[in-house]
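Structure tokens please, single chain.
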Amino acid sequence: MAGRTSNPTGRPSIRKIAEACGVSQMTASRALSGSGPVADATRKKVLEVAARLNYRPNRLVRAVLGGRSHTVGLMIPIGSWFLAEVIRGAHDALAAAGYLPILHFNGDGPGANHDAGELEYLYRLVEQRVDGIIFVPSEGSIPDHYLREVWDRQLPLVSVDRKMPRTRADFSGTDDEMGGKLVARHLLSLGHRRLGHISGEPWISTY
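Here you go.
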């Protein structure tokens, strides 16, 4: 019935909204998604009924049909206050932009030898139809062809803190070289001349 506005079976669907508005499911879908030609009065009516029924779109269905899930994979190891702040910053920025982060803690922290596990979970995020991936790699030697599924889906991939120079991934991180120069200049200005440097594995960019 056109006047019915309740859904005793549970979660309201586009079909229920269409019935309540007296329009087709295609029209209701276009009005809810904001795509396709729909009269302003019809769109307003559909949105009002959807709000009254507490309609919530199925994100997975929207991802399959529209190609966008409004989710972003966030792969970050557990290990330090710095990484906790990266998680908080990424979460806040994504939420403000209308995206839902899907968080995966990849390994035991920086330097862990778990490349195969990282790639497995990265591909699982791809299968979840995320719109992009923010990634703190254990090290930067991953070759580009390992990320073929990411590039085939044309997903943006951002490497945080550690560069992956053998890939097309974007990078966001600190300028470690400049940081080292500033520390050296400060020590030299204090009169120190015998400086020691403790480093890590040469294939990890932050070292």
